Amino acid sequence: MLSRWLAISWLLFSSLLAGCSTGQHGPEGRAGGASEAIENKGSDTLVNLALAWAEAYMQLHPEVRISVTGGGSGTGIAAMINGTVDIANASREMKPEEIEAAKANGIIPEEYPVARDAISVVVNPTNPVSALTLQEISDIYTGKITNWGQIGGEDRPIVLLSRESNSGTYVYFLENVIRLGKKESTLLFSPETLLMPSSEGISAEIRRNPNAIGYDGLGYVTADQKMLAIAHDADGSYVLPSVDSVNDGSYPISRPLYMYTAGEPKGQVEAYLNWVLGEGQSLVSALGFVPLRP
Length: 294
Description:
The chain has helices at about 1-20, 45-60, 75-80, 95-105, 135-140, 170-180, 200-210, 245, 265-275, and strands spanning about 35-40, 65-70, 85-90, 110-125, 130-135, 160-165, 195, 210-215, 225, 230, 255-260. It is of the alpha/beta class and about 290 residues long. It has 2 domains: about 1-115 and about 255-285, Periplasmic binding protein-like II (D-Maltodextrin-Binding Protein, domain 2, 3-Layer(aba) Sandwich); about 115-255, D-Maltodextrin-Binding Protein, domain 2 (3-Layer(aba) Sandwich). Strands 1, 2, 3, 4, 6, 7, 8, 9 and 11 form a 9-stranded mixed β-sheet that branches.
């Protein structure tokens, strides 16, 4: 999947190269051809888009080397707090305890929304269920609904799939879908939930298991998965995730994606972030995400 996304990104940023030169963007290269490295780590949701941005930017700026790795939003934020990366990718906002840990290290984190995303709820294409409310999804993932027959499907047990707890997507889904955005809620994933280490793991299990349900960023949904239409409640409209439904606010499960730095960025890190928030937005749609500006 990664090679497919990067191939798309190469096509897009080649058009940027045709009209841009190194002198038009950010700082000039160092004397003697020395390169400057930027370490970028975190959200697995953002990793494909971050890789595409890094490849495009390095073509425009050969004096800069950008290393991109995943590991989850929590991992990236912890690395930023510990001073081992320049930029942390996150598919959720920093938690209060993470901000306090940063301050204890003398760091005031800077937050940059860099794109938007829809979280898609997916099932096997053979599953006859095509739409759910947020309450039904919450009831499924907390174990109140355990059989597809309870929500208009076949008499089969529901197999729950989730990302692991260090994933920002996991945290967002817990707080905004399972707990329905209620700060006082203490609902948790059912202990029967299978925690998958990656988006690819969820995709593979959905393809294999006709009883499974999972969730993932829109950019990671493949053609052999069935996306469900989601409504706020039974009286609302059921809407499929898409760039348009995120832009018009009709899809109920959408969120910003972030980059964080340890204090105000400077030098090449600042130049790179400015590019991501500007010209780099032209790569966002091709990777299945939503640009900051429609």
